[in-house]
Write a structure and sequence with these properties.
Strand order of the largest sheet: 2-3-4-1-5
Oligomer: single chain
Number of helices: 19
Helix content: 40-55%
Structural class: alpha/beta
CATH superfamily of the largest domain: P-loop containing nucleotide triphosphate hydrolases
Strand content: 5-15%
Largest sheet: 5 strands, parallel
Order of helices and strands: HHEHEHEHHEHHEHEHHEHHHHHHHH
Radius of gyration: 32 Å
Number of strands: 7
Distance between the termini: 82 Å
Length: about 450
């Protein structure tokens, strides 16, 4: 198992690699983690093997400095830095690192920082292999993840590690990163000037991701040089990145956060916010069938009988998307989104079925009243099945007084219509129906 060296700052390396901070003092952003006396500062100040025993899980979106912080920790104490990726490493690789770290500590007194990228991709068995080295302090584990560690990291490892949350860089942070890279000798060398509007465009496209900002800057600088200009212009940025690449991992937290915000915006009757989140999913390449399915669920759960057409519209949108595909499918999805967002809301039917299910599971069943039982098979009438049943269509109003619930549940009310949309009328009608059927 070979140590992974810190990426060099030679001109051949990508700009993002050349500009990677070597110490915590060079890190831009994450001020909440880098204050004097913070756990990261104390860990960086410890020397060699003395720092072992404190492991860290860094949770945050891409480009916020997880790898940078891990390397800075290794550099600060003169420790060995070993990097593994959960995409390609296995239990054998982990054990090899642990064995080597133990030898280095015992014979040379040198500590080892093991940086494990994308730990959420490790299986439970693979994460279990890390425990001996973490428990015994053979390594300082710095694990990075873009997914919620509460769901993706095993409890024993979580309980033995500091969980630190990294935040997306703000606009001022990204502007500082870009200015540093433009002026630094190991960056663009100061031979190009970054136009203010071009800087703003890169910041906007980067969406809090320093690596993306530097990659865009490097491509824009190449365009300016090809045009034999000494100034990077907005047109260079546009050519380098013709559309913003949204931070949206269909298998990660952002997927769930955006669809959650989408559903809650429709439920909250804000079509503008709902369309915004719909657009984010469409641009990021979300499966339109997934969006359509969620709209159908929402129509049944949150709109219900207040506007029965809501489910029809959602189903029509789903069928249309299935037939025509994208990009045209965005139109029926938008139509359904606006319709559902502006429709009256009621979860009364949803609440009613859950209440009825809860009763049944709790044993509130009871036998079907004899007059409602099937009387069509031989011998049924001799058992009294169907005797006394009142046929509603024979009554002038089409409704008769009659017990429908089992004896144990007489008087139970599950469905309570809300005074919204179509349910307002249903509520008035249902009150009259119950007075007749129940003799109230």
């Amino acid at each position: 198992m070979m140590d992974q060296p810190t990426l060099g700052r030679g001109a051949a390396a990508p700009l993002a690699a050349r500009m990677r901070p070597r110490t915590l003092d060079e890190v831009v952003g994450q001020r909440h983690l880098l204050r004097p006396g913070s756990p990261l500062r104390r860990l960086a100040d410890a020397d060699g093997a003395d720092s072992a025993g404190t492991s860290v899980i860094l949770w945050g979106p891409p480009g916020t400095g997880k790898t940078t912080i891990a390397q800075a920790l290794a550099n600060s104490g003169g420790r060995r830095f070993v990097q593994l990726s959960a995409i390609s490493a296995g239990v054998k690789d982990v054990r090899a690192v642990m064995d080597e770290a133990l030898r280095e500590r015992d014979f040379l007194g040198e500590g080892t920082v093991l940086f494990l990228d994308e730990i959420h991709r490790f299986t439970k068995a693979q994460q279990d292999a890390l425990l001996p080295g973490v428990e015994q302090g053979w390594v300082t584990l710095v694990a990075a993840t873009t997914e919620n560690p509460s769901f993706s990291v095993i409890s024993p490892l979580l309980s033995r590690s500091l969980l630190l949350t990294l935040r997306p860089l703000d606009d001022d942070d990204l502007a500082e990163v870009l200015d540093r890279a433009t002026a630094a000798e190991h960056g663009l060398g100061g031979d190009l000037e970054l136009d203010g509007a071009a800087r703003d465009a890169i910041v906007r496209l980067a969406s809090g991701d320093a690596r993306r900002a530097l990659t865009t800057l490097e491509a824009a600088a190449a365009g300016a040089r090809a045009a034999e200009r000494e100034r990077i212009l907005p047109d260079d940025v546009e050519s380098a990145s013709d559309q913003a690449l949204l931070r949206y991992d269909r298998d990660g937290d952002e997927h769930y956060d955006v669809i959650s915000a989408f559903i809650k915006s429709v439920r909250g009757s804000d079509p503008d916010a709902a369309l915004h989140y719909l657009a984010r999913m469409i641009v990021a390449g979300e499966d339109p069938r997934f969006i359509a399915r969620r709209l159908m669920i929402l129509a049944a759960e949150d709109i219900g009988v207040a506007d029965p057409q809501g489910l029809v519209v959602a189903q029509a949108a789903a069928a249309t998307v299935q037939l025509i595909g994208m990009p045209e499918g965005r139109i029926p999805l938008a139509e359904a989104t606006v319709y559902l967002a502006t429709a009256p809301k009621s979860n009364a039917a949803y609440v009613a079925i859950d209440a009825a299910i809860a009763d049944v599971k709790a044993g509130g069943i009871g036998r079907v009243p004899p007059h409602l039982r099937d009387a069509h098979y031989p011998g049924a009438k001799a058992l009294g099945h169907g005797r006394g049943y009142e046929y509603p269509h024979d009554a002038p109003l089409g409704v008769v007084r009659q017990q429908y619930l089992p004896d144990e549940l007489v008087g139970r009310e599950y469905y309570r219509p809300l005074p919204h949309g179509h349910e307002r009328e249903i509520g008035e009608r249902l009150a009259k129906l119950r007075r007749i059927t129940r003799g109230e």
